[in-house]
Write a structure and sequence with these properties.
Belongs to the shikimate kinase family. The chain contains nine helices and five strands. The chain is of the alpha/beta class. It has one domain: Rossmann fold, CATH 3.40.50.300. Helix 2 crosses helix 9 and helix 7 crosses helix 8. Bound molecules: shikimate-3-phosphate.
Length: 171
């Protein structure tokens, strides 16, 4: 099976709203391994929400914590790990994932990202201006980095199970 062949965590990367957590949870269930969400793990470790953490300590402190949380999770039991959108853009985390995991970029277009993130206010980066403009700028900056993932899966406005099937096909 896939797991015997891989023997390393499956790490989902991509922008906010691509569906990393949603797809990751279902993918883990299909593979019969735990699902872990790096954002949730960060919040548990910090004892507050990411939005509050950003407001109190700023983004650089968040990135430092995120780096540690992901390093710890990658040492743990085999799992599907959904990362926050900025994680794979940190050189140290990206190297760690490239060395020790199977990385999957869940790629989506701007319209889908805007749609999926709208009406939700837990993402501090999208609250500093027009979300479409911010997401568009993040696409420009980050897509060349996400492109270094082992596998790239395009997602449209489709049920998460369809995206999961695409990932399983590629693994
Ligand atoms: C971020 C994405 C968020 C979260 C934080 C910063 C980013 O995670 O880690 O708000 O830099 O793209 P999601 O991609 O799960 O929304």
């Amino acid at each position: 099976g896939i797991l015997e062949r891989l023997r390393r965590p499956i790490v989902l990367v991509g922008l906010m709203g691509a569906g990393k957590s949603c797809v990751g949870r279902r993918l883990a269930a299909r593979l019969g391994i735990p699902f872990v969400d790096a954002d949730s793990e960060f919040e548990a470790a910090a004892g507050c929400s990411i939005a509050d953490f950003f407001a109190r300590y700023g983004e650089p402190a968040f990135r430092e914590g995120e780096r540690k949380v992901i390093a710890r999770l990658m040492e743990g039991p085999l799992c599907v790990l959904a990362t926050g959108g900025g994680a794979f853009c940190d050189p140290e985390t990206r190297d760690r994932i490239k060395q020790g995991a199977m990385s999957v970029w869940i790629r989506a277009d701007l319209d889908l990202l805007v749609k999926r993130t709208s009406g939700r206010d837990h993402r501090p980066l999208l609250k500093t201006g027009d979300p479409r403009e911010i997401l568009s700028r993040l696409m420009d900056a980050r897509y060349p980095l996400y492109a270094q993932a082992d596998i790239i899966v395009d997602t449209t406005d489709e049920p998460p199970e369809v995206t999961v099937a695409k990932v399983l096909d590629e693994l």
